[in-house]
Amino acid sequence: MSQMVIGIGTSHSPLLAMQPEMWVERARDDYKRTRIQLCDGRVLSYEQLAADTGNRYAELAVLDHFKKQHAAAQQALDRLAQDLADAAPDVVIVIGDDQDELFNLTHMPAIAIFYGEKIVMHPTAEAEEHLPAWHQAALKGYSQDAAHVHRGAPEYSKALIEALIERNVDIGASSEVTDARAAGFGHAYGFVIERLFQGKRIPVVPVLLNTYFPPNVLRPARCVEVGRLLREAVDALPGNQRVAIVASGGLSHFATDADFDRKVLEALRTGDSATLRSLPPSAFKSGSSEILNWIMLGGALEGLRSQWLDYLPVYRTPAGTGIGLAFGTWR
């Protein structure tokens, strides 16, 4: 039987693919935001958020602090990469969110698995002109500076799809990228491959979760259940493959909510699926919806123990816009 040997969670924020000096440049966009979704369900403009928080994060939204957080984040990513190398997986399942990269509103499955041989990245850097320097740096870190081709796991992916269908999980399926400039794989997958694989061409099973686009976004309880069934399917497949599973994305953004992030991480650390199931769907809007990838990971972690978790609440502006960066391993 195949065996799940490691679980990994990692943020994939653009901040992780650029130098801290560019964090300041990235923050300039935050001041222009007119709709910032909070984990408590409210939607505020930047000015309203600043009034709500009293700009209490001003001392943290400075370059010197960004440099410290950048160094800590890169150290955490190095540790994840080493943990993955030590686990020596034959295949890596990546749970990520598709943001109008491979799928769009003409067809947006709630959850899909790609079973093609070639994972072709959507070359945003080629398709769009006049991108700011921070965006260009992020796209390179996302493997989206060109139509890079990474290795799929067609046979394993097909077997996994069939095993999930047998377990009453209705899975969308995709097998080919026909025109990468029009539609291809995005940052949730490219970041993991570029940053954690250390140049190795490990076969990848992309699990594409719709977190951003209503009305067919899975609820937290269903994410836990599908994660549990995904783990059950992995354990039941024939062969002796060593399998890694990675949640890519999150945590809270574009307004950082450290209390909510820590609640999610503590539930993942302790295997508290009841808390994960009960989290309110209203918290998972906009960028914070990527936390659903971690919740699905939580359902798949039975029998694996938390080895370490690191959390860095990043506040790019005095009002508290930014992201909760999180990293962790289960073995």
Word description of this protein:
The protein is 38% helix and 19% strand. The chain has an 8-stranded mixed beta sheet, with helices on both faces. A two-stranded antiparallel ribbon has the order 2-3. A two-stranded antiparallel ribbon has the order 6-7. It has a single domain, classed as 3-Layer(aba) Sandwich (Protocatechuate 4,5-dioxygenase, Chain B), CATH 3.40.830.10. It is built from 11 helices and 12 strands. With 331 residues, the chain is of the alpha/beta class. β2 and β3 form a beta hairpin. The model has no long low-confidence stretch (mean pLDDT 96). The longest helix is centred in the N-terminal third of the chain and has 25 residues.
Layout of strands and helices, then pairs:
Blueprint: E1 3-10, H1 20-30, E2 36-37, E3 43-44, H2 46-53, H3 63-87, E4 91-97, E5 111-114, E6 118-120, H4 124-127, H5 133-141, E7 149-151, H6 154-166, E8 172-174, H7 187-196, E9 204-209, H8 220-236, E10 242-248, H9 258-270, H10 273-278, H11 291-299, E11 306-315, E12 322-330
Parallel strand pairs: 1-10, 4-9, 4-10, 5-8
Antiparallel strand pairs: 1-12, 2-3, 5-9, 6-7, 11-12
Helix pairs in contact: 1-3, 8-11
